[in-house]
Amino acid sequence: MPSGTAGRKGKAMKQLTIISGKGGTGKTTITAAFALLARRKVMADCDVDAADLHLLLNPELRQTVEFYGGRSPVVDQEKCTRCGICTDLCRFDAIKDGVVDLVSCDHCGLCVYGCPEDAITMRENHSGSWFVSETAYGLLVHARLGIGEENSGKLVTAVRKKASEIAENEGLDLVIIDGPPGVGCPVMASVAGVDMILSISEPTLSGMHDLNRVLDLAGHFKIPARVCINKFDINPEITAEIERECRDKGVEVVSKLPFDRCVVDSLVMRKTVIQHPCGEFTSRIRDMWERIEADLS
Questions:
Q1: What's the rounded Cα separation, in Å, for the pair 152 and 146?
Q2: What is the spatial distance between Cα 179 and Cα 193, in angstroms, rounded to a whole number?
Q3: pTM attached to this predicted model
Q4: Which H or E run contains 178?
Q5: What local confidence, expressed as pLDDT, does residue 103 receive?
Q6: Cβ–Cβ < 8 Å for 16, 196
Q7: Which is the most buried residue in 94, 150, 191, 245, by most CB within 10 A?
Q8: Alpha-carbon Rg for the chain in angstroms
Q9: Which DSSP string do the residues of 255-273 spell out, in sequence order?
Q10: CA torsion sign, 48 to 50 to 56 to 62?
């Protein structure tokens, strides 16, 4: 659902997506902290390939919906004459004697069009599930993609749509989206139409490279972006370079978070850094949230 949906007393509902060009930058840690700091919001975990926000928010399941995405070929054995045309057509060697190897199959559907007996059809897969859960800090919409399943972009869209519906129906002001890493289809599905992107980076060469990809993506969709540099003190030189690049692109660095072993300890206890405060790290997250909240208002 696009941004601008009416929230409380006609106030426009905002959507914030937190992403990173790679995994392991602290994106979910920061999202979970925001979940405790923000008011009148619903959370959406759109990292459906490896959802873990629920591990910190301890949700109680309220609704489960099965998700069907993608299609696979199914052979009607009574119609199949074992002519071998589908085997000749398949460049992945995924079908032989009317038997489909779904591991090798690319699900392209060429065998369906090539079968002279119309013995092969494409049927939707049960690819996973999405859930609505209640936490002590508000409702959480999250999902689980099946092992080896694709089309996670569609599942991301389903999660976002439900979160937006909840916010609209309950008059909430904000949807906080924990996005997937990278810049592929699931990320595009998690940022399209949102009001702001917060990109979590880290001071490494790969982190800087991936941040540039994220900022290019935000620029393509014309979405305002902010940057947080996590563990900034492990490499001050690259941190300074990231700041320079952000200035050149006109993107604000809203926070620089220090490395702190306490953060790891809090995660081991399945607590956010707000519940298990980590000194300067927690203080800077609070300050960052106030800046982002002001920009969204």
A1: 10
A2: 14
A3: 0.87
A4: strand 174-181
A5: 86
A6: yes
A7: 191
A8: 22
A9: EEEPP-HHHHHHHHTT--T
A10: positive
Q: What are phi and psi of 236, to 5 degrees?
A: -60, -30
Would you state the pLDDT for residue 2?
46
Report the amino acid identity of residue 10. G
Q: What is the pLDDT of residue 155?
A: 92
Q: What are residue 280's phi and psi, to 5 degrees? A: -65, -35
The rounded distance, in Å, linking the Cα atoms of 245 and 240 is 9
- How far apart are alpha carbons 277 and 91 in whole angstroms? 56
Average pLDDT, consecutive stretches of 10 residues, N- to C-terminus, the chain (297 residues): 51 91 90 96 94 94 92 94 96 94 91 96 90 97 85 88 96 96 88 96 93 92 96 96 95 97 94 95 97 94
Where do runs of H (alpha helix) occur along the chain?
27-37, 54-57, 85-89, 110-114, 152-169, 185-191, 205-220, 236-249, 261-268, 280-296
CA angle 68–70–72, rounded 5-degree value: 110
Q: Is 193 left (phi over 0), alpha (psi -120 to 50) or beta?
A: left
C-alpha triplet 50, 54, 59: angle, nearest 5°: 150
